[in-house]
Design a protein that fits this description.
This protein is mostly helical. Helix content is 43%, strand content 6%.
Length: 299
């Protein structure tokens, strides 16, 4: 499932009440503002995180799901959250040391400006498991008055919110570390790092505004927003100023349609024409059936 904006507000305000290890609520917020996987954060080391110069979290190939190194630009709030984890981690080389090296919170885990550091003996320095993060959510999410969700739902939610902000599909897929369609991956090797950084900062800015927004306004946003590809194909009502036709044409023009051709996407054929041809008439219902072109699923 994906969290609606009202639920995102509740998440951001209530997650710190989790009666669990102090690092877990902070980590869950990081997952939302970076759109990354819990296992990749659980195994992260401080040598992978640059909070000062590059402001970048590098996920090595050994930690990423697809076996490829992935670089995640950090928004301002993401940097602050990582800094909180740094103070909690003490001398551990891991961003999230194993619970055996961290004392459970006796009270709700509200991160303070100067949380108590923990020490991790070299022989017991291990990282937390992704299952521990999942179990913490399963045990405590309903106790703070929220409906059930999983850590992976935060990634799905971030993906949807990026789309609603008008972030182009190939930029969003780069953020999620998804493989791009075959032809696009071959001919477009640009990493779009600046665009990814801007998109994640936009996402963070939106999330930080939600706690200050009335629920009635958020409910209206949910009613009028889009939540999936099918909805966008029948009238984009998100933040992007582009119409469906122009949005589609811009995506194609940037990456695929340098010349007229006919190509194949994941076993389905689609006739294409030059993006400069004003007579191109995209069939909305048909275009939604080409997942190789619209890889806007969440995973």
């Amino acid at each position: 499932m994906e969290l609606r904006v009202v639920q995102i507000k509740d998440f951001w305000l209530k997650i710190e009440q989790f009666p669990t290890y102090k690092s877990i609520p902070i980590a869950l917020k990081i997952l939302l503002v970076t759109a990354q996987r819990r296992g990749e954060l659980a195994a992260a080391e401080w040598s992978h995180v640059d909070l000062q110069d590059k402001k970048l979290w590098t996920i090595p190939a050994s930690n990423s799901k697809n076996g490829k190194e992935h670089r995640v630009p950090l928004s301002q709030i993401a940097i602050k959250l990582f800094e909180q984890l740094k103070r909690l981690a003490g001398k551990s080389r891991f961003v999230m040391p194993s619970p055996q090296t961290i004392k459970p919170a006796a009270t709700p885990s509200v991160p303070s400006e100067n949380p108590v550091e923990t020490s991790s003996p070299p022989d017991s320095d291990k990282h937390i498991t992704e299952r521990a993060i999942t179990k913490a959510v399963e045990r405590h999410v309903t106790k703070i008055g929220m409906t059930h969700w999983t850590p992976h739902d935060l990634r799905r939610t971030a993906s949807t919110q990026l789309a609603k902000l008008g972030v182009l599909p190939h930029i969003k897929e780069k953020i999620l570390n998804h493989a791009l369609p075959e032809m696009m991956a071959v001919y477009d090797q640009h990493d779009y790092m600046d665009e990814r950084r801007a998109a994640l900062q936009q996402l963070a800015d939106k999330i930080l505004k939600l706690p200050k927004t009335d629920d009635a306004v958020l409910e209206k946003m949910d009613r009028e927003g889009i939540s999936n590809v099918a909805a966008s194909c029948h009238g984009h009502r998100g933040a992007s100023p582009l119409s469906h036709h122009k949005w589609m044409q811009r995506f194609v023009d940037e990456s695929l349609m340098r010349h007229p051709w006919k190509t194949k996407f994941r076993g389905k054929h689609m006739a294409t024409a030059s993006a400069s041809d004003p007579s191109v008439d995209w069939d909305r219902s048909r275009s939604c059936r080409y997942p190789g072109f619209f890889r806007l699923y969440h995973g």
